[in-house]
Amino acid sequence: MSAPPIRTRGLGKRYGTLVALEDLSLEVAEGEVFGFLGPNGAGKTTTIRLLLGLLRPDAGEIAVLGQRLPAHAVGWRRAIGFLPGDMAFWPRLSGWETLEFLARLSGRPPTARDRLLARLGLAGAELARPVRTYSDGMKQKLGLVQALQCAPRLVLLDEPTKGLDPLVQQAFYEIVADLKRGGATVFLSSHVLPEVERVCDRVAMLRRGAVVSLGDVEALRRSERRRVVADFAEPVDAARLAHFGEVVVARAEHVELLVAPAELPALISRLGMLPLADLVVERPTLEEAFLEHYR
Amino acid sequence: MSVASLLGHHVRLHRVPLVPLALGLALFEGVMTFVAGEPSVTRFLTSVLRSAPPELLALLNQDLLAGVSPRGIVGVGYTHPFALLMMGVWAVRVPSAALAGEVGRGTMDLLASRPVTRAAQVAAALLALLGGLAALALAAWLGTLAGLVLHPVEGVRASAYLPVAGALWALFACFGTIGVLASALARESGPAIAWTSGILAGSYVLDYAARVWPRIAALRPLSLFRYYEPQSALAGGIASADMAVLAGVAAVSVTLAFAVFARRDL
């Protein structure tokens, strides 16, 4: 069995006294789309930069495409496509010059370039212009093309849809789906939760440099507390329900609670003893699950 | 392969300023041959220099009072602050932009995430530095050659200035390698530019001050300009001891640059 494209064990990184990443252990399987979630400063970009060998870890181990890092060997990077979070180019080079230069450095032919340009709507005339004349959205599109043009096996994307309009975002989601179908592994960090929910197989949530949750998107949603909205025929004392979960709204006949899945049967039995008029149990969206971790 | 690609990248980024720098140097050295060929100018300069304070003459790094000759006046073109400035611009600009500049701009992520070793990045920066300086030194000498072809001066041969141009290249190559080291250490081009130009300017000032102020004359060997003596090169070729010092400083700087850049966070 081949090594997973990404494997880290106890990975840590400090900037002076600031702990940027602590004890990160994860494995990303071949062909998987893995989401990395977290607020600003959580350590997402640091993780990606460690995976690329741009930073040296202070603790732990990293192996990317079977190559242990840090390493003098650089051949493993031929199979990698990377989109930085803060997209920067050489302002005087044209889009074409930029793509040509970066493809040459990658050491692989840009077999996917034309298809990507067409899907992302970057025309030849635009590519002939210096990059300094590009809008942020165009720079992001150029960034996606440079990352994916050589058909990489492992794609690392830091905030990939930043600055893209909804139509181009749609095209990007289709590109990720195609990458997955083609067997590529995608590791993406994002703030856009519906995007992660839509394209990722698994997701890790990061907070202050540590993983607070890791699992497949569906299981993550399942494990999170349900919102139970109960309406009664007459006022009830919400405090009598508090031991089943967290009462978040209590207004006479209307009560809302956040309840762990395991507590649901007991709560529903208890509600049946009260003058219940209506009951709704909502599964959390990934966004709610995310917010629950960061509140 | 990656060194060649990176070198091409540096050439693309810096080719525009290289042209005016080279033309400026060539034109300046060409004009110096015209100045040197005019007997009235030689007479005028001799009288001016005899009355000039030695401090002013020291600024030109020349023992001009020993005898103003057309050959010496052409040589002044290789120590004149204008020529030093043209060479200095390249020695500061290219190394600073190559490593620290890429890190500061954010484009280093695009380079370093590809199969390019850090040693290749330093090597490409060095080649761009040394190649550009060679082009500038050659342009200076071609200016001298063109001037002497268009306006021959008795007793002055262009070939005599090839070692001088070589010494000029060696001096700024040495400063440039210090620039590569500064760039390998810095996170933005600003500090790298400040350090390199500061060392260059400080070295120039120290050399000048040590020549005009006997109390600090012993400090002169600390200045790299001490090891650049065009008039000596004209008289008897390049002093190998001077070249050895410049080569030694350059070797240490380059070794440290490779070592530091290979281990740092980008």
Walk me through this protein's architecture.
The complex is a heterodimer of chains A (295) and B (266). Chain A contains ten helices and 14 strands. Chain A is an alpha/beta fold and 295 residues long. Chain A folds into two domains: 216 residues, 3-Layer(aba) Sandwich (Rossmann fold); 71 residues, Alpha-L RNA-binding motif (Alpha-Beta Plaits). A six-stranded mixed sheet of chain A has the order 6-7-8-3-9-10, sandwiched between helices. A four-stranded antiparallel sheet of chain A has the order 2-1-4-5, with helices on one face. In chain A, helix 3 runs antiparallel to helix 5. The radius of gyration of chain A is 23 Å and the shape is elongated. The two termini of chain A are 41 Å apart. Chain B is mainly alpha-helical. In chain B, 76% of the residues lie in helices and 0% in strands. The model of chain B has no long low-confidence stretch (mean pLDDT 90). The longest helix of chain B has 35 residues. The interface between A and B is medium-sized, with 31 and 24 residues.
